[in-house]
Design brief:
Layout lengths: L6 H18 L8 E5 L5 H9 L4 E4 L2 H10 L5 E4 L5 H11 L3 E7 L2 H12 L11 E6 L16 H11 L3 E7 L8 H17 L5 E3 L6 H6 L4 E4 L1 H4 L9
Helix pairs in contact: 3-4, 4-5, 6-7
């Protein structure tokens, strides 16, 4: 496990690798977001990353995200990247509020409606009504162990959510591909292209790539990469909430 003092240097190294991957593929670095996946990690480690300039953090467990969001700085932008039970949607939105930048793992209309209802009950000081960004999770590998929509299910669900969930914004697509199979990234890109063609949805993001393959994901068009252990070290799941 990486020592706390190494978090900032690890983060700097990952940022350098993101920059090289983007520039070597002719991609504007500003279009690639690095989400530091901090699940099971103590708040002290997140604060070191924060003090090194990191603002996007990803969590897999609703209770852990809610707890961290209440005690860490308000300008952190939280991404929920784990399986979310529909009964956890309302408390997650209520307690994290507008600091919840994105739920990346929406794959059912039931969950989307729960999130939509929760957002509708939020009080916001902003003049413009807050909309929650969501990514639709796609199972690009076909593995039964992986969650997500089949590629052919993406456009129909996106259309229904846009029609029935006015407090949500379908911001993009997300996948956890099969390890070593770069074709999963290409499938996600095809899903995005289909959404543009069939639904007229433009400027959609692609959340793909983790510690072991984020550079390859960037080369295939990722706009959102989720990197955890390379920044924070191996995870202690016994500490998860």
């Amino acid at each position: 496990m990486a020592a706390t003092s190494s978090v900032a240097s690890n983060l700097e190294d990952v940022r350098d690798r993101v920059k090289v991957a983007a520039e070597s593929n002719g991609i504007d670095l500003e279009t690639v977001r690095l989400v530091a996946v901090s699940k099971t990690k103590p708040e002290e480690m997140l604060m070191e990353a924060y003090e090194a300039g990191q603002r996007y953090f990803g969590e897999n467990y609703a209770q852990e995200l809610m707890s961290k969001a209440e005690s860490l700085p308000d300008d952190i932008k939280w991404h929920f990247i784990g399986p979310l039970q529909s009964n956890k949607a309302a408390p997650l939105v209520r307690r994290v509020g507008t600091k919840l930048a994105c739920v990346e793992t929406v794959a059912t209309l039931k969950l989307a409606k729960k999130l939509d209802s929760a957002v509708s009950n939020l009080e916001s000081d902003e003049e413009e009504k807050f909309k929650l960004n969501i990514f639709l999770q796609v199972n690009t590998s076909g593995e039964e162990s992986k969650s997500g929509l089949k590629p052919e299910e993406v456009a129909p669900l996106a259309t229904v959510i846009c029609d029935q969930c006015p407090n949500l914004r379908v911001k993009g697509l997300m996948t956890i591909g099969e390890t070593g199979d770069m074709g999963c990234f290409d499938i996600l890109m095809q899903c995005r292209d289909n959404l543009v063609k069939e639904c007229g949805m433009n400027n959609l993001e692609l959340s793909m790539g983790m510690s072991g393959d984020f550079e390859q994901a960037i080369s295939r068009g990722a706009t959102n990469v989720r990197v955890g252990s390379t920044i924070f070290g191996a995870r202690d799941y016994a500490a998860s909430k």
